[in-house]
Amino acid sequence: MEVTVTAYNSVHWQTEGNPTVTAWGDTLREGMRCIAVSRDLIPLGLDHDKEVVIEGLPGTFLVKDKMHRRFKRHIDLYMGEDVAGAREWGRKRRVIRFKVPLPADSLQIPETP
Q1: Closest Cα partner for 98 from 23, 47, 38?
Q2: Which among 17, 28, 36, 87 is least surrounded, fewest beta carbons within 10 Å?
Q3: What is the assigned CATH class of domain 2-99?
Q4: From first to last of its 113 residues, what are the pLDDT tens digits of the chain?
Q5: What is the DSSP string of 15-57?
């Protein structure tokens, strides 16, 4: 899935309330590999603690935060207090990959006569 990717920081002027506490209640720490997701992506499977691969970046990131409702098909990379790094990242389009669980009823084997 292609999304817009920006970056955010644990600074008061970029967040609501405590800048190290996420919308899901997790505490962010410098060096964590996590992202915030736009709320329209949550029903598609990008829920809390989901592992995500971002095209062009090594390793995986965990979904730990939610973005404001105005954002659509958008993720935010967490960059701790590195405001310059977040500005340098800017705005990019990237393909992200994540596993989506199958619905429970899709695992049922139909009975044969």
Answers
A1: 47
A2: 17
A3: mainly beta
A4: 999 999 999 988 877 778 899 999 999 999 999 999 999 999 999 999 999 999 999 999 999 999 999 999 999 999 999 999 999 999 999 999 999 877 766 666 667 66
A5: SSS-TTB-TTSPBP-TT--EEEE-GGGGGGT--TT-EEEETTS
